[in-house]
Design brief:
30% strand, 1 helix, alpha+beta
Length: 86
């Protein structure tokens, strides 16, 4: 996984969860799912979410309301990205 990952703090996680809900349009693979923001890549705007069904995904937020269900881009991963040890 790329460098730059760190765990989210409670206030940040809440804001990132809200942003994800805001960006999802009808037909998006995550629409209707609840995601808990658990890690963020400070270099890429990617956020790791644990979904209500236990899956983990990395979402590239766009920071705007989307109309195309292909955005924000989602990649399902096997585990939460590890925090850098720096």
């Amino acid at each position: 996984m790329a460098r730059g990952w760190r765990r989210t703090e409670a206030h940040e996680a809440e804001a990132l969860e809200h942003e994800l809900r805001r960006e999802l349009s009808p037909g998006h693979v995550l629409k209707g799912r609840r995601g808990l923001a658990v890690a963020r890549n400070v270099a890429s705007e990617d956020v790791a979410y644990v979904l209500d069904d236990g899956r983990v995904c990395v979402v590239h937020l766009t920071w705007k309301i989307e109309r195309d269900p292909r955005w924000p881009q989602v990649t399902f991963v096997a585990e939460i990205p590890e925090e850098d040890a720096d």
